Amino acid sequence: VAASSSSSSSSVTTSVMRVVATRTWRAQRVTSEVVKPFANSFVRSSSNTRARARGIPTRDRVPVRVIHETLSSCRVSGPVRAAAPSADMSQGQGMKGMKGKALVSVSDKSGVVELARGLVDLGYEVVSTGGSFKAISEAGVAVSQVESMTNFPEMLDGRVKTLHPAVHGGILARRDLEDHMEAMENQNFGLIDVVVCNLYPFRATVTGSSEIAFQDAIEKIDIGGPTLIRAAAKNHKHVTVIVDPTDYTDVLTALGSGEEGSAEKLRTHLAWKAFQHVSSYDSNVSEWLWENGGGKGEDAASAPPEKTIPVKLVNTLRYGENPHQKAAFYVDQSLGEHDAGGLALSTQHHGKEMSFNNFLDGDAAYSAVCDFVEPTCVIVKHTNPCGVASAHEGQDDPQDLRQAYRWAVEADPISAFGGIVAFNRPVTEELAKEIREFRSPQDGETRMFYEIVIAPGYTEKGLETLKGKSKTLRILEAQPHNHQNGRGMKQIGGGFIVQDHDYLNPEDITFEVVSEVQPTKEQLEDLKFAWRCVKHVKSNAITIAKGKRLLGMGSGQPNRVKSVEIAIEKAADEIEGSVMASDAFFPFAWNDSVEKACQAGVKAIVHPGGSIRDSDAIECCNKYNVALLTTSVRHFKH
Fold first, then answer.
1. What is the reported pTM?
2. 610 neighbors 490 (Cβ within 8 angstroms)
3. Which residues contact 272 (CB under 8 A, 6 or more apart)?
4. Per-position b or e across 154-189, b if 16+ CB within 10 A of its CB
């Protein structure tokens, strides 16, 4: 193209030609009608900053009239062939023959090179940023930097890379709206058809093994990434957004198939996934900020006015509590649950897949057994401990769990059959043999059947031996759930209720003797054992114990006296000299819970106290020479 007007200065010609070169490299033939809008656009945006960004000296900026005069005097000397874009050229729709443009900006670079190569093979032009560009280009895949779209360099230490109208206009423009496409044409912005983005590893940064400075954590809060993802997800009718490397193969297949129906369904699914990805990310940031001063001076343990909890699907379950109920299993990805252990993070070594009820019962059993200090076995049925026993001094081997296991079964062998067995010590070969071969105390012949065995570990021989008990026996390995500073949540109709975990144990409270009779040392130890047990039994809860083993328990009864009667019945002939714990105070004593226990042979009782009739309980225990203690702590469990 040559300027024929003699009045045109060389600087004007230089400016116009730079506009033409920058804006029309794809054109097959240049005319004044094509160039004039570009000139208008150039002049409208020719501030000092924009001029410098395009490499155009400020002194070369000229009035639009002069540029129009210059352009109108231009003549086309021949066809202008499309040339490959240079690094400083603004890219539009893509080169002739290209399917479209893909923007790749990822923190997790797993599979990104293969994805980029696949996109190029399908005919897409790949544009990328920073480390993603480096990884893709070093692999020999055709890629250009995002600056080629924006004509603007990354700035503020990478805080601003893709926050530019050329990028977000290309993503958000609706292809089915004429005014959107006209606006894009007026600005000479190209369309972006695929956005591949995942976010800075904020969670990994703030949950790492080493302390991190506040500002360093702040720098890991992604801004441009969520903006790209949300924009692409919003416009998913026209744009494919990918946040998960596991979706790369499916996307390449869909893009290559040309089947718009299936591709549209995939785009909608990916859009949901994108919004959920950003939501979970933001919830971690919000949680961290609240814990680090975001509560306006409030205690970080106080309840924030709003809260989002990120959970991730592990798998769907066969059914819920009953076969007609659908169910699924999720893991909590809150920062507070990172490395906190618990059943949700357990490893299953053997057996059938876990069911909804298995998870409930397993969690109840393992939460209970992990509360004990001494080597302990807990057996649970329908979330209630039906057998509990601890190995202790006085045995030939105070660390031997085999006797504790036998005692736990003997507490209620009928309920133990088909239950969940949990240990707070690793399972050895000797213990595994005991579990495998032990016969029911009822007939001495029937092998005990269990749904699950849970322990913090297994020896190699112990695991091998236990696997031989049954093909269906679920064998789980889990670390204790560190919930001392955590909270539990329960759903009610239309909402949730939240509370601190009940982490108080006998070591944390004072057992005050309120009767004339003092408990013996052995009785006090048994009272603490019974108190630890009753904490995990559904209210109204009563436990009777002796020799650090549960003899009987009453649970879930609408009145406390009935729970006492059930516990006495289960303790049977062994009740003489035992101790009893109640999760809440006794509202009545005479001819009620306290007197019935005393008459049955219980020799020491512990309850929270606090009833207006506490004096009746004291007088009753004094009459029967029974020790009575209070804790001022209640352990309701619903």
1. 0.78
2. no
3. 233
4. beeeeeebbebebbbbbbbbeeeeeeeeeebeebbb
DSSP-based three-state secondary structure for 177? coil
pLDDT at 36: 43
Give the pLDDT confidence score for residue 443 in this predicted structure: 87
Q: Is there a cis peptide before residue 559, judged by omega within 30 degrees of 0?
A: no
Report the C-alpha gap between 585 and 41 in whole angstroms.
Answer: 81
> Residue 481 in contact with residue 340, Cβ under 8 Å?
yes
Q: Quick one: pLDDT at residue 218?
A: 84
Q: Which residues are catalytic?
A: 234, 382
Query: Which of the residues in the chain have pLDDT under 70?
Result: 1-98, 155, 158, 296-301, 483-485
Task: Output the pLDDT for position 482.
Answer: 80
Q: Which amino acid does the sequence have at 527?
A: L
98, 123 Cβ separation under 8 angstroms? yes
- State the chain's maximal CA–CA distance in angstroms: 124
Contact partners, residue 496, CB within 8 Å, separation at least 6: 489, 490
Q: Are 48 and 58 in contact (CB under 8 A)?
A: yes
Inter-residue contact 168 to 227 (CB < 8 Å): yes
Rg (C-alpha) for the chain, rounded Å, is: 36
Cβ atoms within 10 Å, residue 449? 14
CA angle, 360 then 366 then 369, to 5°: 140
Report the residue count for the chain. Answer: 638
Those residues whose C-beta lies under 8 Å from the C-beta of residue 601, and which sit 6 or more positions away, are: 575, 576, 577, 578
Query: Residues 528-570: pLDDT tens digits?
Result: 999 999 999 999 999 999 999 999 999 999 999 999 999 999 9
pLDDT given at position 298: 63
